[in-house]
Design brief:
Strand 1 and strand 2 form a beta hairpin. The protein is mostly helical. Helices cover about 70% and strands about 5% of the residues. It folds into two domains: about 60 residues, Winged helix-like DNA-binding domain superfamily/Winged helix DNA-binding domain (Arc Repressor Mutant, subunit A), CATH 1.10.10.10; about 45 residues. Helix 1 crosses helix 3 and helix 2 crosses helix 3. Strands 1-2 form a two-stranded antiparallel sheet.
Length: about 110
C-alpha cells in the first residue's frame, strides 16, 4: 500500500514492493498485479529488476546498497566542496587582513 503521497509520485513501502516481487516470482503477471493493486506494471517490473540486482542476478546495475552508498557519498562530496569554498574565502580574507596589519605596523 502507498506509504505517503508527494506532489510527484506515490511512495510504496519496501514490504509492499517485496510482496509484489514475490507474487511475480510465483507466476503472476505485472499487468495483472498493476490492475489489482493500483500501481503500474512498469513500476512492478522495475522493482523486479532491482530485486534481481540485489540478489546478484541482475543486469549489472547498482544494487540498493550501492545506490544508497552513492547517494551518501554524493551528499558528503557536496558538503566538502562547500566547506572547502568557505575555507578558501576565509583564507583570502585573513590574508588581506594580514597585509593591512603589516602596513599599519610599518607606519609606526
Amino acid at each position: 500500500m502507498p506509504k505517503s503521497k508527494s506532489k510527484r509520485a506515490v511512495r510504496y513501502t519496501p514490504e509492499f514492493r517485496r510482496q509484489l516481487v514475490e507474487l511475480v516470482n510465483a507466476g503472476r503477471k505485472p499487468s495483472q498485479l498493476a490492475r489489482e493493486f493500483g500501481c503500474t506494471s512498469w513500476t512492478i517490473s522495475r522493482w523486479l529488476q532491482q530485486s534481481k540486482r540485489d540478489a546478484g542476478l541482475g543486469d549489472g546495475g547498482l544494487t540498493t546498497d550501492e545506490r544508497a552508498q552513492l547517494v551518501r557519498l554524493r551528499r558528503e562530496n557536496r558538503q566538502l566542496r562547500i566547506e572547502r569554498e568557505i575555507l578558501s574565502k576565509a583564507a583570502a580574507w585573513f590574508a588581506q587582513g594580514t597585509v593591512a596589519n603589516s602596513k599599519h605596523s610599518s607606519d609606526s
